[in-house]
Amino acid sequence: MKFLLVFDFDHTIVDENSDTWIVKCAPEKKLPNGLRNSYRPGHWTEYMGRVFVYLGDNGVKEDDMERTMTTIPFTAGMVDLLGFIGENKELFDCIIVSDSNTVFIDWILKAADFHKVFDEVFTNPAAFSSTGYLTVQNFHAHHCPKCPKNLCKRKVLKEFLDKQLERGVSYTRIVYIGDGGNDLCPVMFLKKDDVAMPRQGYTLEKKIAQLAQDLSPVECSVLVWSSATDIMSYLKLLTKE
């Protein structure tokens, strides 16, 4: 019996958006209007690329960014939840699928000593250039009309499960924990034994509720959470099954 836990990152593991948190490094902790207004829906990664150029142009160094990122708060109860998962790794495989980037997630997990909890992290690849600028790329290419250009989380989840099956690993149940609109696509891929855990009051919960109203509900069970303590209570029940 093994369970797969799939976590989003921003507003799920951390209680903020890591991409907007980095703006604290900018002069006067804000971006110029022209840059802020340059975002086009579905093209977040390109937008963040421009933000990183602006930070680099203003002399913001890797150390400044790391210091800022590691002050981002975890969601209520999340530190205890990740500790619990870490102590029960024989029952839980655990992955992150996020629209953040490898550098930010790596810094945050390592600073809190949580990187060992997660088996894999799927997010936009980022690195510092030889001139010290942070650069970010799209995670992959896909043909899903519902998802942002750089990342379809359903595709990531499906490819991960296929790879695990090739290794002889299958899961009794998938538990998907997230908050955003881009978490709906993978949730719609889940089967009836699986569980979607949308964060209370966030877009994913609203979109799942809308589908139910439209009489095309998701196939999996839905459990809403407001603090990670709710998630831990559910996982404790699972371990007793």
UniProtKB/TrEMBL annotation:
* Cofactor annotation: Mg(2+)
Can you tell me which residues bind substrate? Answer: 19, 99
Enumerate the GO terms in the molecular function aspect: metal ion binding; phosphatase activity
- Membrane-spanning parts: none
| Gene3D superfamilies referenced in this protein's UniProt entry, alphabetically | HAD superfamily/HAD-like (3.40.50.1000)
Active-site residues, record numbering mapped to chain: 8 (nucleophile), 10 (proton donor)
Task: Kindly list the positions annotated as binding Mg(2+).
Answer: 8, 10, 179
Instruction: Tell me which UniProt keywords the record has, alphabetically.
Output: Hydrolase, Magnesium, Metal-binding
InterPro entries hit by this protein: HAD-like_sf, HAD_hydro_PyrdxlP_Pase-like, HAD_sf, Pase_PHOSPHO-typ
Source species, domain of life:
Eukaryota
| Listed SUPFAM superfamilies | HAD-like (SSF56784)
A Pfam family that the UniProt record links to this protein: Put_Phosphatase
Instruction: Respond yes or no to whether keyword DNA-binding is given for this record.
Output: no
Chloroplast found in the keyword field: no
Against NCBIfam families, the record matches this protein to:
DKMTPPase-SF, HAD-SF-IB
Which family is this sequence assigned to? Answer: Belongs to the HAD-like hydrolase superfamily. PHOSPHO family.
Q: What is this protein called?
A: PHOP2 phosphatase
Gene this chain is encoded by: Phospho2
